[in-house]
Amino acid sequence: MQSSKVDIFFLMMQTSGTSNLADLPNPSEPITNAYHEPRTFTDASPDLYPYLQHRNSLTPYAQRTTDLTVISTGLSSGVKTYIIMPPTIYGTGTGFFNRLTIQAPTVMRSALRTGQVLQLGANDGDVECVQCEDLADLYILMARRVVRGESEDMPSGARGIYFASTSRYTWGEFADGIAKALSEVGGIETKEVKKVGLEEAAKEWTGGHQLLCELNFGSNFRTRPDTSRSLGWTPTKTKDDFDSHYLETAKLVMNTQK
Question: Would you give the DSSP letter of residue 192?
Answer without folding.
Answer: P
